[in-house]
Write a structure and sequence with these properties.
The complex is a heterodimer of chains A (786) and B (117). With 786 residues, chain A is an alpha+beta fold. Chain A has 19 helices and 22 strands. In chain A, strands 12-11-10-15-14-13 form a 6-stranded antiparallel beta sheet, with helices on both faces. The termini of chain A are far apart. Chain B has 117 residues and is α/β, with parallel strands linked by helices. Helices cover 38% and strands 21% of the residues of chain B. Chain B has 4 helices and 5 strands; from the N terminus they run βαβαβαββα. Chain B has a 5-stranded parallel beta sheet with strand order 2-1-3-4-5, with helices on both faces. The N and C termini of chain B lie close together (11 Å). The chains are: A alpha+beta (786), B alpha/beta (117). The interface between A and B is medium-sized, with 25 and 18 residues.
C-alpha cells in the first residue's frame, strides 16, 4: 500500500455507505469504487455466490474461508484454475471471501496490472472492509427489525420466568397460555396434551372458547403427528377464527402436546414467518419444562394413590383378621358390618346386609349396623374417637349396641325382596353381579310413583323402605351396593350410605368395599356351610340314635316272638284246664279259688304276650274304611268286662256323624283299649273317663280327633318324654308297652298323638287321624316297624 | 251229633280241645299232624275241622289246601298261637281264624256259628 492510501478515509466511506439508505447494489458499487480509488487498482469486483462454481480457485477460497493474496501471478500454480477464471489472473491480485461464519455472501476481488506487495496495514484494512461488506450484504438480506427483536426478547424472558416459577401444573399451563396470547396479541389459545394411555389429544387448558372448534382440533392433531409448527391466515367467513398458530410440544424427540393461538391481531404479512419462528423457539424451551412438570405431577399422583392403596390394604388385612376370629354366622355378619361402619375401617355411616335365599330367589334382610338418628351417630362417634387401637382390636371390642332396639335393624330384618323385582337396585346388584354407586336427586316433597310400587325414585326397595325409616327426610341420599361373593356365586348384597355426615361416596370407596365384600362373602359362606354342617351333624346323630333304637327293637322283637310262641301253647293248656277246673269244682271249695287264681294269672301272661307280639309284629295291616264310633264302643265294652266295680264313670261325647277313617280295625281297637286301660290305671280312686270324638279340618284336609281324658294323678313331668318309649314303665303294671303300641298304631295310620298333661289333675291324650278318603293309603300307612 | 276233627301237634292242646268240645256236645276226633289229619278226614268225614297252622312236616295251610281240593264247603277254623298268618292270603280259604287263647269262648262261638247251631 502506498503512502497516500488513507485507510481511515476509506473505512469511514465504507461504514457510511453500509448504513446509507440506498439500495444494496448502489451501496456495493460505491464501496467498490472507493476501494479501487484508494488502492489504485485496475479492477475491483464483487463476485456473487451464484457465479462461483463448485470447482476451481474461487470455490477453494470459499471453502477455505481465507483471503487469497497473490503478489506475483507468474509463480501461481495453474492446476485448479478454470478457463473462465483465467480472466481474473492479473499479475497481482487478492480474493477476500465475504463470510460471516454462517454462510458465504460472495468474494471481493481486487486486481492490479503490475505485481505488487501487500503491507500488513493493507491486509488488516482489507480484512476489516470485507467484514463490513459481509455485514452490509447480510443486513440487506435480513432487514433488521429492532421492535421485533425487542419483542422477541421480552417474550422469551417472560415465558422463561413463567416456566421456572414453582406453580402447580394447571396454573403453570394457564399462565403459559395467557402470557403467550398476550405476547402474540392473540384473542385466545388452547393447550392440548396427549393422553399417555390412549394417545388421544385432550384439551388441558384454554383461553376463550376456541377448544370447541373441530377444525382447530384437527390442526392440532396434524401438528402433533408432523411435529412441525403450523400457521394459517384466511378470511373465509365459515371459520370461527381468521388466523391460527399451532406449535408442537416436543420433549426427548417425542411430541406430547400442542400449543395453539387463535385470531392474532398483528398484520399477518409482516410477522407470520418470524412469529412462527418465535413460537417454535419459545415452545421448545417450555416443552421440556411442561413435560417434567407433567411427569412430576403423575408421579406424585401415583405415589399418593399407592400410599392410599397400601393403607387400605393394611386396613383390609386387619378387617380380614377380625373375620377369622369366628365361624358363627351371626357374629360374622356383625363383624363384617361393624368393619364397614367404623371410622378406621371404611367409615360408612350405615351398613345393611341382605342374604340371598336360592330356593325362592329372594333377598332377605339379615342385619343392619348404624345409628338410628344423627344424635345417636354423634354420640357413637364421640365415644369412638376416644378409643385407640388397630381396627382389628376396635372391631372385636365393639359390642352391638342394643341391637333389638335398633329401628333400622328391625326394619331391615322385615325386608324381603324377590329377585324378580328387577327394578330394585339390590336385585340388580345380584343379577348383574356388579356394584352400584348411586346419588339420588334431592327428594321431592311428595314421593313420585314408580314401577317399584313403593314410591322409590330409583325403584330401589332399599331406597324407599329405608327412607321410610328416616324421619328427617334427607335432601340428598347417596348410597352404594356391592355384591357379596361366595365361591362362584353371589350370596347376598351389602348396602352402605353416609346418611348423617353426607360424605360423598367415591368409586374408589366402592372398589375398596368390593374387595372387602369378596373376602367377607367367602367368610360368611363358610359360616353358613359350617352352620349347615352342624345342623346336619345333629340330624345325623339323631338319626343314628333312632336307628340304634330300632335295631334294638327289632332284635328284641325277634327274640320276643320266638319266646312268645313257645310260651303261648303251654299257657293255653294251663289256662284252659284251669278254667275247666274252675267250672267243675263247686264254688265253696278252696280249690275253686286256686283254679281262679291260675286262670287270672294266665290271662295276665297272655295279655303281656299279646302286647309284645303286637309291638314287635312286622306290620302290614289291612286297611279298610272303619267306623270309629264302633271301634271306640268296642274298646270301652272290653274295658267294662274287667272293671265293673263302679269306681270309674264313663262320659261319652261323640259328634254325629263321625267320618270314617282308613285303617286296621283291630289295631285301632287295640290302641284305644290301651288308652282306656291306661286311663283307668291312672285313676286309683274314683274317677271319670271322658271320651270325645269330633271331626275337624286343617289346611283343607279333614281329620277326626279323639280325646281320651282321665281325672287321675297325671304323668310326672320327668317321665313325660319317655311315655312312648317301649319297656319304659313306672313299675305299676305291665311291661310298659301300652302307650308305645298306641303310638305305633296311630303313627302307622298317618295320625298324630298329643298329650295334655296336668300332674295331680289328670291327663288328656289327643289322637288325630286322617279321614277316609283322606291321605292316600300308600303314603305312610305301611311303615316297617322293624 | 256233629263231628269235629281237631288237628294240633301239641298233645295238651288236643286234650283240652277234645274235653271242651265234647262238653259242648260234639264228637271229637284228633290228629297230631297234617298227614294224620288227611287220613282221618277221609275216614271220619267230619262236619268241621280246627287246624293248627304251625306244625312239623305239612303245615296247617298245606292241609287246608288239600282238604279244600276235595271238599269245598266243609267249615275249617284255623287256630294259631298268634295272628301272624292273618294276613296270609292262603288263610282266606278258611272260614275263620282264631288266635289261641286259654279262654276257649271265641273258638266255641266260632264253631257254633259255622255249624249254624
Amino acid at each position: 500500500m502506498s503512502d497516500d492510501v488513507r485507510p481511515y478515509e476509506l473505512l469511514k466511506t465504507i461504514l457510511h455507505l453500509s448504513n446509507a439508505s440506498l439500495s444494496l447494489e448502489l451501496r456495493l458499487d460505491r464501496m467498490l469504487q472507493a476501494i479501487a480509488e484508494t488502492f489504485q487498482s485496475d479492477r475491483c469486483l464483487f463476485l456473487k455466490p451464484e457465479v462461483i462454481r463448485n470447482a476451481g480457485m474461487l470455490s477453494r477460497i470459499v471453502s477455505e474461508k481465507k483471503p487469497f493474496w497473490v503478489e506475483d501471478a507468474s509463480s501461481l500454480p495453474r492446476e485448479d484454475i478454470l478457463p473462465e477464471e483465467e480472466d481474473l489472473i492479473s499479475p497481482s491480485f487478492v480474493c477476500l471471501p465475504l463470510d460471516d461464519e454462517a454462510s458465504c455472501q460472495g468474494i471481493l476481488y481486487i486486481g492490479f496490472q503490475r505485481s505488487r506487495r501487500f503491507s500488513p496495514e493493507e491486509v488488516d484494512l482489507l480484512n476489516l472492509i470485507s467484514m463490513e461488506i459481509t455485514g452490509t450484504i447480510r443486513k440487506a438480506h435480513f432487514p433488521p427489525l429492532p421492535d421485533q427483536t425487542r419483542f422477541e426478547l421480552t417474550a422469551l424472558r417472560e415465558l422463561g420466568r413463567v416456566v421456572t416459577s414453582t406453580l402447580k401444573l394447571e396454573d403453570l399451563l394457564q399462565l403459559i397460555l395467557a402470557t403467550g396470547a398476550r405476547i402474540l396479541k392473540a384473542k385466545g389459545g388452547v393447550l392440548r396434551l396427549m393422553d399417555r394411555n390412549t394417545g388421544e389429544l385432550k384439551v388441558k387448558c384454554r383461553l376463550g372458547d376456541y377448544d370447541q372448534n373441530p377444525f382447530g382440533a384437527k390442526i392440532a392433531r396434524r401438528v402433533l403427528s408432523t411435529r412441525k409448527p403450523f400457521s394459517l391466515q384466511q378470511s373465509e367467513k365459515e371459520l370461527p377464527f381468521t388466523s391460527v398458530l399451532c406449535a408442537p410440544l416436543i420433549s426427548q424427540g417425542n411430541s406430547f402436546g400442542t400449543l395453539s393461538f387463535y385470531d392474532l391481531e398483528a398484520n399477518p404479512s409482516t410477522f407470520s414467518e418470524a412469529i412462527s419462528q418465535l413460537l417454535l423457539t419459545t415452545v421448545n424451551q417450555i416443552s421440556s419444562s411442561i413435560d417434567n412438570a407433567l411427569s412430576h405431577d403423575e408421579i406424585s399422583d401415583l405415589a399418593r394413590r399407592q400410599e392410599l392403596r397400601a393403607r387400605r390394604l393394611s386396613t383390609l388385612w386387619e378387617l380380614n383378621k377380625a373375620l377369622l376370629t369366628t365361624v358363627n354366622l351371626d357374629r360374622m355378619i356383625e363383624l363384617t358390618l361393624t368393619a364397614i361402619t367404623i371410622g378406621d375401617g371404611f367409615g360408612f355411616n350405615r351398613a345393611m346386609l341382605f342374604l340371598l335365599n336360592e330356593e325362592n330367589q329372594t333377598l332377605y334382610g339379615t342385619m343392619a349396623v348404624g345409628p338410628d338418628s344423627a344424635e345417636e351417630a354423634g354420640k357413637i362417634w364421640n365415644s369412638l374417637s376416644e378409643q385407640r387401637g388397630s381396627p382389628f382390636e376396635m372391631i372385636l371390642a365393639l359390642q352391638p349396641t342394643s341391637e333389638e332396639n335398633s329401628l333400622l335393624n328391625s326394619a331391615i330384618k322385615r325386608m324381603r325382596i324377590p329377585l324378580s323385582h328387577g327394578q330394585c337396585i339390590l336385585s340388580r346388584t345380584v343379577l348383574e353381579g356388579k356394584s352400584f354407586n348411586i346419588q339420588l336427586p334431592a327428594l321431592e316433597e311428595e314421593v313420585p310413583e314408580s314401577s317399584c310400587g313403593r314410591g322409590c325414585q330409583l325403584g330401589s326397595g332399599v331406597g324407599c323402605q329405608v327412607a321410610e325409616q328416616l324421619s328427617h327426610d334427607p335432601k340428598v341420599y347417596a348410597f352404594a351396593t356391592v355384591p357379596l361373593c361366595g365361591k362362584g356365586k353371589i350370596i347376598g348384597v351389602i348396602l352402605v350410605d353416609n346418611l348423617y355426615n353426607r360424605n360423598p361416596i367415591t368409586d374408589e370407596d366402592v372398589h375398596f368395599l368390593s374387595m372387602f365384600a369378596n373376602q367377607a362373602g367367602l367368610a360368611i359362606q363358610n359360616a353358613i356351610l359350617y352352620r349347615n354342617i352342624e345342623d346336619v351333624n345333629k340330624e345325623l346323630k339323631e338319626a343314628q340314635a333312632l336307628l340304634v333304637h330300632r335295631e334294638k327293637m327289632a332284635a328284641l322283637g325277634e327274640l320276643s316272638d320266638k319266646i312268645a310262641h313257645e310260651i303261648r301253647n303251654p299257657l293255653v293248656s294251663i289256662g284252659g284246664f284251669a278254667r275247666r277246673l274252675y267250672r267243675t269244682l263247686p264254688g265253696e271249695v278252696p280249690e275253686n279259688k286256686y283254679a281262679q287264681t291260675i286262670m287270672v294269672e294266665v290271662g295276665r301272661l297272655e295279655r303281656i304276650l299279646n302286647n309284645i307280639l303286637q309291638y314287635t309284629r312286622d306290620d302290614s295291616i289291612v286297611h279298610e274304611a272303619c267306623d270309629l264310633r264302633g271301634i271306640l264302643e268296642d274298646g270301652l265294652s272290653m274295658l267294662l268286662e274287667e272293671l265293673d266295680d263302679g269306681r270309674i264313670t264313663i262320659a261319652r261325647a261323640f259328634d254325629e256323624p263321625i267320618p270314617r277313617v282308613m285303617g286296621d280295625r283291630q289295631g285301632l281297637k287295640q290302641a284305644f283299649f290301651n288308652l282306656f286301660t291306661n286311663a283307668c290305671q291312672a285313676m286309683q280312686e274314683k274317677g271319670t273317663l271322658s271320651v270325645r270324638a269330633y271331626p275337624f279340618s286343617r289346611n283343607g284336609t279333614s281329620f277326626v280327633r279323639v280325646e281320651v281324658k282321665d281325672t287321675g294323678k297325671g304323668i310326672a313331668p320327668e317321665n313325660l318324654h319317655n311315655i312312648f318309649n317301649p319297656f319304659f314303665s313306672t313299675g305299676e303294671s305291665g311291661l310298659g308297652l301300652g302307650l308305645p303300641i298306641v303310638h305305633k298304631i296311630v303313627t302307622s295310620h298317618g295320625g298324630q298323638i298329643e298329650v295334655d298333661n296336668h300332674p295331680g289333675e289328670g291327663t288328656t291324650f289327643i289322637i288325630t287321624l286322617p279321614t277316609h278318603p283322606g291321605r292316600p293309603p300308600s303314603a305312610g300307612l305301611h311303615p316297617k316297624a322293624g | 251229633m256233629k263231628k269235629i276233627l281237631v288237628v294240633d301237634d301239641e298233645e295238651n292242646i288236643r286234650f283240652l280241645y277234645k274235653e271242651e268240645l265234647e262238653d259242648e256236645g260234639f264228637t271229637v276226633e284228633l290228629a297230631k299232624n297234617g298227614e294224620e289229619a288227611l287220613e282221618k278226614f277221609n275216614v271220619f268225614s267230619p262236619d268241621l275241622i280246627t287246624l293248627d297252622i304251625k306244625m312239623p312236616g305239612m303245615n296247617g295251610i298245606e292241609v287246608l289246601k288239600r282238604i279244600r281240593e276235595k271238599e269245598r264247603n266243609l267249615p275249617i277254623v284255623l287256630c294259631s298261637a298268634y295272628g301272624e298268618y292273618k294276613q296270609d292270603l292262603a288263610t282266606w280259604a278258611s272260614d275263620a281264624y282264631v288266635v289261641k287263647c286259654a279262654d276257649l269262648t271265641e273258638l266255641k262261638e266260632t264253631v257254633r256259628r259255622l255249624l249254624k247251631l
